[in-house]
Amino acid sequence: MATRWTLGCDAADPHRLAAFWAEALGYEPEPGYDDPDGASIIDPHGSGPAIAFLRVPEPKTAKNRMHIDVRTSTGPPTDPADRENRIRAKAAALSAAGATIVREQTYDGHFGHIVMHDPEGNEFCVA
After folding, report:
1. Cα distance between residue 30 and residue 44, in whole Å
2. How far apart are CA 88 and CA 51, in angstroms?
């Protein structure tokens, strides 16, 4: 049996960051979690880990060494043009929600994924 776990994240504004990641991942606020200095989101289907955000006084100072990859599909690769369109659509939606596009990554001249920053500058990828 796998160990249940929670991804813990530092934040300047935990509620704003939790709202962004809930939208990005299709999560929802954790019922009963009410803390002005923290927020927690959960997978409504119960299969993904909880993600907690805790207010910290210090600002982000370096590149994060672990990050979330937002996947636009599951299963085997599909048509490359369709995959690219789904990635671009998700990146556009996340930009509207407060993220910024950093760059597009290509592999051997082929579109790979989009690197983004969440509202507090944490790097993640849309693939």
Report:
1. 9
2. 25
Cα 44 to chain center, whole Å? 16
Farthest-apart Cα atoms in the chain, separation: 48
pTM confidence score: 0.90
Structure tokens at 60: 């982000």
- Evaluate whether 61 touches 10 at the Cβ level (below 8 Å): no
Q: What is the pLDDT of residues 83-109, one digit of tens each?
A: 999 999 999 999 999 999 999 999 999
- What CA–CA distance (Å, rounded) separates 86 from 90? 6
Task: Please state the three-class secondary structure of the chain as a single string.
Answer: CCCCCEEEEEECCHHHHHHHHHHHHCCEECCCCCECCEEEEECCCCCCCEEEEEECCCCCCCCCCCCCEECCCCCCCCCHHHHHHHHHHHHHHHHHCCCEEEEEEEECCEEEEEEEECCCCCEEEEC
